[in-house]
Amino acid sequence: MCGIVGISAEANVAGDIYDALLMLQHRGQDAAGMVVCNSEGKLNSRKSMGYVRDAFQQRHMNKLIGNYGIGHVRYPTAGGAGKEFAQPMYVNSPYGISLAHNGNLTNSESLANELFHAEMRHLNTDSDSEVLLNIFAHELGKQREIYPEAKHIFKAVTKTHRRCDGAYAVIALITGFGLLAFRDANGIRPLVIGIRKGKTRDEYMIASENAAFASLGFETLRDVEPGEAVFIDNKGKLSTQQCAEVYQERPCIFEYVYFARPDSTIDQISVYKSRMRMGKMLANKIIRLKPDHDIDVVIPIPDSSTTAALQLAHELKIPYREGFVKNRYIGRTFIMPNQEERKKSVRRKLNILDLEFKGKNVLLVDDSIVRGTTSRKIIEMAKEAGANKVYFASAAPPVKYQNLYGIDMPATKELVASKKTDEEIGAEIGADWLIYQDLSDLIASVQVGNPAIKEFECSVFTGEYITPLSEGYLENLENTRDDSSKVTRLKAN
Length: 493
Fold this sequence. Notes:
The chain is α+β, with helices and mostly antiparallel strands and about 500 residues long. About 30% of the residues lie in helices and about 25% in strands. The chain folds into two domains: about 5-250, 4-Layer Sandwich (Glutamine Phosphoribosylpyrophosphate, subunit 1, domain 1); about 270-450, Rossmann fold (3-Layer(aba) Sandwich), CATH 3.40.50. The protein has helices at about 15-25, 50-55, 60, 110-115, 130-140, 150-165, 255-260, 270-290, 305-315, 340-350, 375-385, 420-430, 440-445, 460, 475-480, 485-490, and strands at about 5-10, 30-35, 45-50, 70-75, 90, 95-105, 165-175, 180-185, 190-195, 200-205, 220-225, 230-235, 240, 265, 270, 295-300, 325, 350, 360-365, 390-395, 435. The longest helix is centred in the middle third of the chain and has 19 residues, at about 270-290.
């Protein structure tokens, strides 16, 4: 999962891009980068490993001069880790194109072969983002326009859609001409347009989440539609066109469960309200299964489960307490690059308030359970603090399958729910009772926000993938996503 942003304005945009990337830091903590372009068509760029605050010092910001630009925060997926994978990525022909990508192509290997053998393009990494950049660059070059207009750029996007499978929310900077954004035909990964009044023209911002808008004075205009392309030229003119021949809105439901900020609205659905409804649905299930439950207190595992836990406690008419104090300077454990780091960071990340646990039957609420190791460690902490019984509720159904669309889920064999019953999972993590959200209830919790969306991308729960997959793709991905493979790649870098 990554965060992307692009801004076109009257004045220098680097400061606004920096602030936007801080707001999107939860989507990636491995690397950060920015490219801006000035009125003379000169690019200025900076990218580095680490957090946004580490990648950009004042001496870097002083050199980032330009009135339109793009930024990216990244965490490593199967493609690898290292500075060469940091984005935006750049190719010099045609025009000079920089690209920031959130998502994952499922046919990147075959496309890479085509690029080398048929189109004679060299790729420097095995990143699917570099593949996507070169596919688009090749298709735009085929337009053979010295001064491309929106219609030529949209034709290149249409041909890119035809060739690329998987998930991609993209913002690209075409040097000297403007900013381009487009989204895959299923709209799996989010992309939102914001608008701000300038002195002489409207200014635009496009980002993964609109939580980044308000602090910079932008108002949400709308979402980029599945398959749609948006072009803002270097004078600030906005043009849009549907570029996919077949398209359907099927956003990733895990955005609402975990990844997105609660103050974001994605595809017209409030993330905060979705999580409230998830809590209500969980409470209804608990009442249905155990109307005579003996839960004394509801405690969330911060932060993404807090909203659901608060609503759950309200519905059950049980006290809500915050039994964990979070260290805000530790990254999200889900996106730690290896299991050993995740284990170590749980206790560094969470301090426990013993007085909220001692002698009580505690219901812990988390957004989801992936490997189960973090859940087990937290339950151990609760029991060490004196809890009588520890129940565990997940706002999402069992995560049983790897994700193909930009979320770095572990290999299926490393998912605790892949081949276990709920009772077996509960025993493995040490819970006295484990309650999972039903998938139908999760979908209903999100869909209420926008009934026009008829289907969500739910493959981590169902194993049903909505884009074409080549033979052997799942098996190859399984081999690259286990922790031993990740550790090997990290050592190599």
